[in-house]
Amino acid sequence: MDNGASSYLRFLNGEEKGFVEIVTEYRDGLVLFMSNITGDIHTAEEIADETFLKLYMKKPDFKPKYTFKTWLYTIGRNIATDIVRKQKKMIFSSLDDYYYISDNVDIESDYIKSEDSQGLHKAMKNLKKEYSQVLYLLYFENFAVADAAKIMGKNKKQTSNLVFRAKSALKAELEKEGYE
What we know:
single chain; mainly alpha; Rna Polymerase Sigma Factor, Chain: A; Arc Repressor Mutant, subunit A; 2 domains; 9 helices
């Protein structure tokens, strides 16, 4: 599936299966990236759903200047930025004490276990959000620096500098945790 573009094109031409393929292929990664932005897996899931809803309802044009995945993650990031901006204006109470988890599947911890890198994830959570986002995009989602720059709304040089600072911060954090 050439990075989702063919599935999206088939969906635009009326084939619903193309949309299902896109959601199946990209939902988990998009949710995990959105959780880096929001700091909350539940909000991240809602943002991912809203991203796919936007694709389904508005059917925006995909111009292959970037890969489909880059384009999709950029849409998700834009939605997340809008939601985070709106949330800053609102006052929230923690719902942690009031909800029951109805789904026993936690994709974030499943992902961490499958990668066998709990120490790395713990260290990344202690980094600035911008650092953890760029490292996540490059090393977990395998985006190129140019694609990560597009998703994060930066130019390639800014992103390269950000990667350098993020790696240094991650190294310091891992050393603090006792890793060599």
